[in-house]
Amino acid sequence: MTRTSSEPLPLRDALHGVAPYLEGVRGRWVGGLLAALAAGLVALAIPQVIRVLVNTVFAHSAPGVPGPADPAAGVWWAALALGALGLAEAFFIWLRRFFILPPAADVENRARISIYRRLQRLPASFHDAWPSGQLLSRAQADLSLLRRWIAFGSVMLVVESVTIVVGLVLLFTMSWQLALLYLVAAVPIMIRSFRFRNDFRAASRLSQDQAGDLATTVEESVHGIRVLKAFGRGPDALEGFRGEAETLQGTEVHKAAVLAQFTGLVVALPEVVLGVALALGVYLVAVGDLTVGALAAYFATTAVLSRPVEGIGQLMGMTLAAKTGIDRHLEVMRTPVVIASPTGTDAAEEQATSRAVASSEATSAVVLDGLPPSSGRLAFRHARFAYPDTPADAAPLLADVDLELVPGETMALVGVTGSGKSTLVQLVPRLQDVTGGAVEVDGLDVREYPLEELRRRVSIAFEDATLFSDTIRANVLLGAPAEAIADGLDSPAAEELLETALDTAQAGFAKGLPEGVDSEIGEEGLSLSGGQRQRIALARAIAARPAILVLDDPLSALDVRTEEAVTARLRQVLAGTTTLIVAHRPSTVALADRVAVLEGGVIVDVGTHAELLARSAAYRDIITTGAQADRTLERFADAGDAASHADAAGSHAAPTTEDAR
Ligand SMILES: Nc1ncnc2c1ncn2[C@@H]1O[C@H](COP(=O)(O)OP(=O)(O)OP(=O)(O)O)[C@@H](O)[C@H]1O
């Protein structure tokens, strides 16, 4: 999916958008600019010394013309001045880099941290809509463009413009006829530059968006490499990638052609004019209207001017690319955070990051006054929800969900595939927000809680267990209460929490890995089996010690016996924790205190497993499908390893059937 913004932001607006990143670096940028200006002016002074030098020599050698008293000394002084000016120019160039490079890297870093933080805060629906490659390119390539523009482009654009203006003034002081001739070349260049600006900006935006799409394709195919291999789709994926890469190549070539056309004009026109200027200059010297020194200085000045005149197109291109990068960055930064804390803590956090204030200070300020104590009560009050892309005339996915869980209760949520179970449970920690009605935790609407506090009370484990490339210890203790890990992830308190969580989730296999719980589990935990990943993710939810545990079918990849062992331990260890578990199989449902049936966007029945079996045809339908799956899995398990079954039932840390398999 390509995300292309049709309208570029007005310049003022774009600059205003990046202003927070520039705080504290403006002084150094100005210092760098002054140094660069000084270098440019020194470069322009060199031809003036040449003029004096040449006039001195020619004045002395011309017969009948009175020369200076000591022409040799004049030459030495001029040579010395040239050397000194060369050294001064080199020093000022060094000073520009010294002033500007560190703050430019700082700006890039701040912007990168800000966009990362923003991505954390934007709702799940934003991430559903935006391809990851687009976000990657906005966090990487676009910000590198910004850094290069601050460090080089912005400064040199000012310096080269000033150099051109001052150079033209100097040319006029030497010979107005020759200067006028040089200026004639500049007018068509300026006219052409307006068209260039529009063409290049459009090409630049297109290439940056296409680069983002290409990054998405790489990311998706690396992520799904097993599927591509298994289905032999590698060559097709390569073809698709080649197509996208060639499209980008075409755009880049077009971009280069636009730039080359402009640069060609900028280079060629002054060169042609210089040829004419040589003839005119010699004539002016011959008729005595110009000194030889001034003619030499004229050409030396045009040589100094050639770099800025030729480079101005590149610098404009760089400026436009950086502007496009800023627009793309701000597109993400200005996407509203629709799921936010009510107290304004989010805004404070964002500001704090822009100012590069230590994040720990910024995020810890959560107002807890007036919040009810955590008891584990959970209720859905006429909750409605429809995804944003639902047609206006279609019924919402969740039409009117009314359900209450008492503290400590385990409730299973069942429903046919696609009935909205996962969506419903995501409303609890506000991964999605209700579009009507309310979800209450401990008697208070979840939208009334600071997000940090809500997510402390509610912990969730998903069917699709996402792990991070870190140790098992770090993954499990990811959401652990601050007090448990205050002394580090290997403190006794953290160790105890880790033990209990792994034991409850039947994830004892972790201890058998080469480095036990300190084993690195590879990118996204792909070195583990699906069932092992699910159990680590479950242990992570348990280690958060929530008042309310939401489990979105987190045991689906386990065999029936391992699942039974996990569920039985869960009930023991989490006796006081309210648990809402999305379930498909009778084995999970049977362990719940009550079961709620979701159908047609409403809860159609609530009761114990036995009660529902007796009275609900919908429930019997759903559960029969689940039971068939159970039996199939059981047959696999029986054929597998009977001995590991005995282990699983008898010892919590022992390998389960799934591990043995
Ligand atoms: N991000 C999304 N944007 C739009 N529609 C979505 C999104 N996520 C899910 N849906 C749609 O909402 C419906 C319910 O999905 P959901 O995952 O909540 O169902 P479920 O009952 O959990 O299904 P399953 O039992 O298969 O896991 C489906 O039709 C699905 O296509």
Structure description:
The protein is of the alpha/beta class. The chain has two domains: 323 residues, ABC transporter type 1, transmembrane domain (ABC transporter transmembrane region fold, Up-down Bundle); 198 residues, Rossmann fold. It contains 23 helices and ten strands. The strands form two sheets. Strands 6-7-8-3-9-10 form a six-stranded mixed β-sheet. Strands 2-1-4-5 form a four-stranded antiparallel β-sheet, with no helix packed on it. A hairpin with a 2-residue loop joins strand 9 and strand 10. Helix 3 packs antiparallel against helix 6. The longest helix is centred in the middle third of the chain and has 53 residues. It is elongated and about 120 Å long. 38% of the residues are buried. The C terminus is likely disordered. The site of adenosine-5'-triphosphate has 12 residues, from helix 13.
Structural key phrases:
ABC transporter transmembrane region fold, binds adenosine-5'-triphosphate, Rossmann fold, 661 residues, alpha/beta, disordered C terminus
Q: Point out poorly predicted stretches.
A: 62-67, 348-367, 636-661
What's the story with the biggest beta sheet?
6 strands, mixed
CATH topology of the largest domain: ABC transporter transmembrane region fold
Estimate the global geometry from the Cα principal axes: elongated
Number of helices: 23
CATH superfamily of the largest domain: ABC transporter type 1, transmembrane domain
Total beta strands: 10
Average pLDDT number: 82
Gap from first CA to last CA = 40 Å
**Domain count:** 2
Over the alpha carbons, how many angstroms does the gyration radius reach?
Answer: 36 Å
Second CATH tier, the architecture of the largest domain: Up-down Bundle
Strands of the biggest beta sheet: in what spatial order?
6-7-8-3-9-10
Structural class by secondary-structure content:
alpha/beta
The CATH C-level class name of the largest domain: Mainly Alpha
- The helix content, as a percent range, equals 55-70%
Portion of residues in beta strands equals 5-15%
Q: Say which molecules are bound, naming each kind only once.
A: adenosine-5'-triphosphate
